[in-house]
Design a protein that fits this description.
The relative contact order is 0.17. The protein folds into two domains: 240 residues, Aspartate Aminotransferase, domain 2 (3-Layer(aba) Sandwich), CATH 3.40.640.10; 101 residues, Aspartate Aminotransferase, domain 1 (Alpha-Beta Complex). The chain is globular, with a radius of gyration of 21 Å. Strands 2-10-9-8-5-3-4 form a seven-stranded mixed sheet. A three-stranded antiparallel sheet has the order 11-12-14, with helices on one face. A two-stranded parallel sheet has the order 1-13. Strand 3, helix 4 and strand 4 form a beta-alpha-beta unit. It is α/β, with parallel strands linked by helices. It contains nine helices and 14 strands. Bound molecules: pyridoxal-5'-phosphate.
Length: 360
């Protein structure tokens, strides 16, 4: 068996030990004689998996008691619609910050349900910066303020949490949840799809402060209603049981690896190295303002775009896969989530240096 280093933005690389454990338990989960995928979601075996999943997430992120933790379907994209439907609470306006492609999608969807005030927009910098908080136009009467903590495509990441008083902060952490410590109590909602940093695709984590639930719009689909899902243990309909199990294994792996603090350190080290290699080269560059560079997704371009194809071909021959940048921005992107080992980043840096020597 030979595994490559997979720099895909999502679905993305998983810890090898998790895959091995899933393989080991595939046919017979702990003496039950069945696979987790064959179990009733109402049975005691699966309920024990579900309980551990939730308690491990609460532990890892230190989620306060006054928050509900939901495991839903429909991805972060489903939440783009579910959020306004759940928490407008009779208001007709929400604030959104536009820092890139994912923010823009959230904004577009929210406009179906309410007036959107774009409080800050990084479009003028071609999404390579985050506008200064002092320049944000936030209407304190709006229902909430939404932003995207890490722009997966542009490689831009918030380095702290903006503070606008009592207005509930709603944050898309799809591509950086579990990568660094975060104070959940600062947020109204934190949500994330699973396929970047938590497991395979198919689970959407929603962490919501309890005063924000119970007033959803009447027309909301029940599966998106936080209150109904909470009252049913996120099992209003049949959950993605096997994916819950796999996310659970990833959470155990994070715990065994030293928790969020260890992830944070490991991610910092990997990203610093890679950015330094890019900075020191004459061939590669990263357009993002230094203070807001993402530790998860590192986009870079080659000085001569005609070399892109050759770069990707040779990288792939070295077992360095999925480095092609998003079609909307071109160039390259290395996604280096929690599960990307430091050796993977080292191998990429070595390859980049060698390629530059031969083609620079
Ligand atoms: C991937 C991603 C999404 C979309 O997730 P889906 O599961 O495809 O809906 C939304 N926001 C961010 C920041 C992402 O990285």
């Amino acid at each position: 068996m030979s595994r490559i280093f997979n720099f895909s933005a999502g679905p993305s690389t998983l810890p090898e030990s998790v895959l091995l454990q899933a393989k080991e338990e595939l046919l017979d989960w702990r003496g039950t004689g069945m696979s987790v995928m064959e179990m009733s979601h109402r049975g005691k075996e699966f309920l024990s998996i579900a309980e551990e999943l939730k308690s491990d997430l609460i532990d890892l992120l230190d989620i306060p008691d006054n928050y509900k933790v939901l495991f839903l379907q429909g991805g972060a994209t489903g939440q783009f619609a579910a959020i306004p439907q759940n928490i407008l609470q009779g208001k007709d306006k929400a604030c959104y910050v536009n820092t890139g492609a994912w923010s823009a999608k959230a904004i577009k969807e929210a406009k179906k349900y309410c007036d959107v005030l774009v409080s800050a927009d990084a479009k003028d910098s071609n999404f390579t910066s985050i506008p200064d908080y002092s320049a944000w136009n936030v209407d304190r009467e709006a229902a909430y303020l939404h932003y995207t903590d890490n722009e997966t495509i542009h490689g831009v990441e918030f380095q702290d949490v903006p503070d606008f008083g009592d207005i509930p902060l709603v944050c898309d952490m799809s591509s950086n949840i579990l990568s660094r410590s975060v104070d959940i109590s600062k947020f109204g909602i934190v949500y994330a799809g699973s396929q970047k940093n938590m497991g395979p695709a198919g689970v959407t984590v929603v962490i919501v402060r309890d005063d924000l639930i119970g007033n959803a719009e009447k027309s909301i689909a029940s599966v998106f209603d936080y209150d109904q899902q909470d009252n049913n243990g996120s099992m209003l309909n049949t959950p993605a049981t096997y994916n819950w199990y796999l996310v659970g294994l990833v959470l155990k792996w994070v715990k065994q690896s030293g928790g969020i603090a260890a992830m944070q350190q490991h991610n910092r080290a990997k990203a610093d190295k890679l950015y330094q290699a890019i900075e020191q080269s004459a061939l590669y560059s990263n357009p993002v303002e230094k203070t807001v560079r993402s530790r998860m997704n590192v986009p870079f371009v080659l000085a001569n775009a005609e070399l892109d194809k050759e770069f990707l071909k040779l990288a792939s021959e070295r077992g360095l896969s999925s480095l092609k940048g998003h079609r909307s921005v071109g160039g390259m992107r290395a996604s280096i989530y929690n599960a990307m080992p430091e050796q993977g980043v080292n191998a990429l840096i070595d390859f980049m240096a060698e390629f530059e020597k031969n083609h620079g």
